[in-house]
Design goal:
The complex is a heterodimer of chains A (306) and B (287). With 306 residues, chain A is mostly helical. Helices cover 78% and strands 0% of the residues of chain A. The model of chain A has no long low-confidence stretch (mean pLDDT 83). Classes of the chains: A mainly alpha (306), B mainly alpha (287). Chain A: It comes from Sedimentibacter acidaminivorans.
């Protein structure tokens, strides 16, 4: 097991390195002189030169990269171009709304997705299976932001049950989490269904039925428990995508989270913030994938030796 | 004496077999019909109104017999704009997915066939591209190269490359082991010929399925980028851009939001269902 974890760890280090270099190069890849962009359009040549020195753009790339990474790990993320505040101060208050949104979405989609998948698998070929599967395929095909806008139109504008935008109270998160979780619910439902269908064919399920075990126990204790191994993998992988999906949902519902911050910063050309947010998004994704891999290895010893 | 009747054994042509199996998938057939219908819209553009004709007497009209899908903030006909938008949205998706598929397949075949350092290099690069979750890669690319429809196409093409590379690599790996490849090799067929004439056709089933599925993703991605303000300018009747404008009128003219979004949804659904159907008929082994 230790070896497996070590192997996975060694695997992701080069990837994180390359990703961080790409994100670091971001400000150099944008057409135009970064110092000019940071100093603003009206800056004089002298001001631009001062800015260049301040940003360390005269240093060799390797030194700049080293400073960038040291900054990333010590919390010194530079200064926001737009607000002139430290990037840390800009980003930290944005983490909470995004995290709440992601957690709510994952909770409801796990509960709804697994139940839908199990029901669908038990009632395979019946009307309810058909309805659930049509719903699941629709959930994967629907554009997130449109679903959000439609929910907002019906439940906020027409019925007035929830606030349209902002994060003033708990109820502000209801529609955004439903929106963000819809695709994942669909995905979980599909995976649970196919995994349950496979497991229900197994001999030990027939045995438990033959020995007179109640059907409820057969499904929940024997079948579902084994199919959860696959489902957990899907859930874990989707959690990484959730934060990316928050970009759209936060835009629709005007939630002041990380996703919205990323879009605003790109539109305002606030590249220091863009860099940091991109790095946060990618690193969390890579790390979550690693955790999922390791958990999967614990749950299913077979794959450790591949 | 009664004549002995011989049963007639016929080997079905691959195309026949395919159509027989495919026609059984009702949802896939309906989806295909819907996509053909969209193609007709794209080619003939049967718009009832001029898409840029401004009509200040009919601003934000609800759907009625004159304007089936209502009008927008300039009194322009929403139905006509959606029909024109079909052309933009579908061409963006087709161009982007095709570019991604071509580059991705070439890389995938090379990685799968040659293996070794080349394979590690290609596959690790894919891992790097995959570490940008979801749309973030496309957003990042657009942030660097700037907004606009062409740049959206570039971003979505790059976004699609690693998916195709992985799929084509894994099917190349399994084809490589087949006997006819060994036979071709032993009679001295050149690498190029082997790759394009013998291995590539074998990867086609997986390529067709992922191409179809990817079309849905590309349409949603393009619409999302337009919605976020990185794609088509709001002047263009792109579906995503229409939704972005419609958002400001959510209280007064919900039809401006409903119909363009519904078109995106139905089109993506059609591509996904068609992809599901194709997968079941072409390549039942695929996950």
């Amino acid at each position: 097991m230790k070896q497996y974890v070590l192997k996975r760890l060694l695997n992701i280090i080069p990837i994180m390195l390359v990703v961080s270099i790409i994100v670091f190069m971001f400000i150099h890849l944008i057409p135009g002189d970064p110092a000019r962009i940071v100093a603003g359009q009206k800056a004089t040549l002298e001001e631009i030169e001062i800015m260049r020195e301040k940003l360390g753009l005269n240093d060799p790339y390797i030194v700049q990269y080293k400073n960038f990474m040291v900054g990333v790990f010590s919390g010194n993320w530079g200064t926001s171009i737009k607000s002139n505040l430290p990037v840390w101060n800009v980003i930290v208050p944005r983490i909470k709304p995004t995290l709440i949104l992601a957690i709510f979405s994952i909770i409801w989609s796990v509960v709804a997705g697994i139940s839908m998948g199990v029901i669908s698998a038990i009632k395979r070929g019946k009307l309810i299976d058909y309805i659930v599967m049509v719903g699941a395929t629709s959930g994967i095909s629907v554009p997130l932001f449109w679903l959000g806008l439609m929910l907002m139109q019906i439940f906020s504008v027409k019925l007035g049950w929830f606030p349209t935008t902002g994060v003033d109270s708990f109820s502000s998160y209801v529609l955004p989490s439903i929106t963000l979780g819809a695709g994942i619910t669909a995905m979980i439902a599909r995976y649970t269904r196919s995994s349950m269908i496979e497991i229900l064919k197994e001999n030990y399920i027939r045995t438990s039925r033959a020995k007179g075990l109640h059907e409820f126990m057969v499904i929940n204790k024997h079948a579902l428990r084994n199919s959860l191994v696959d489902v957990i993998t899907i859930v874990g992988l989707q959690f990484g995508f959730l934060l990316a999906g928050s970009v759209l949902v936060e835009t629709v519902f005007a939630i002041p989270g990380l996703g919205r911050l990323l879009i605003d910063s790109i539109l305002f050309r606030d590249y220091t913030v863009v860099q940091t947010v991109l790095l946060i998004f990618t690193f969390q994704f890579i790390i979550i994938n690693l955790i999922v891999d390791v958990l999967y290895g614990i749950a299913n010893p077979k794959i450790r030796y591949e | 004496m009664k004549e002995i009747q011989y049963e007639d054994f016929k080997i079905e042509s691959p195309f026949r077999e395919f159509s027989r199996k495919f026609l059984k998938k009702k949802s896939a057939v309906i989806s295909l019909a819907f996509l053909v219908f969209l193609l007709i819209l794209v080619v003939f553009q049967p718009t009832p109104y001029d898409i840029s004709a401004i009509d200040y007497d009919n601003i934000l009209c609800e759907p009625n017999s004159d304007h089936l899908f209502g009008t927008d903030e300039y009194g322009r006909d929403v139905l006509s704009r959606i029909i024109t938008g079909t052309r933009i949205s579908l061409s963006v998706a087709i161009i982007a997915v095709t570019i991604g598929a071509i580059i991705g397949s070439i890389l995938g075949i090379i990685a799968g066939y040659y293996g070794g350092l080349l394979e590690s290099l290609i596959m690790r690069s894919c891992d790097v591209l995959f570490s940008f979750p979801g749309l973030l890669l496309a957003i990042g690319i657009v942030a660097i190269i700037g907004p606009g429809l062409t740049n959206v196409v570039i971003a979505i093409s790059i976004y699609g490359i690693p998916t195709f590379t992985r799929i084509i690599r894994s099917s190349t790996l399994s084809i490589k082991e087949l006997l006819y490849i060994e036979a071709s090799k032993s009679i001295g067929v050149s690498d190029m010929r082997l790759l394009f004439k013998h291995i590539f056709p074998g990867t086609l089933p997986s390529l067709i399925v992922s191409y179809t599925m990817r079309m849905g993703t590309a349409i949603i991605s393009a619409a999302s980028l337009s919605f976020l303000g990185f794609g088509a300018s709001p002047k263009n009747p792109d579906w995503g851009a229409m939704l972005s404008t419609g958002r400001d009128y959510i209280g007064v003219a919900p039809h401006m939001l409903f119909y363009p979004g519904l078109m995106i949804f139905l089109t993506v659904l059609a591509f996904n269902l068609l992809g599901d159907g194709l997968r079941d008929t072409l390549d039942p082994k695929l996950d």
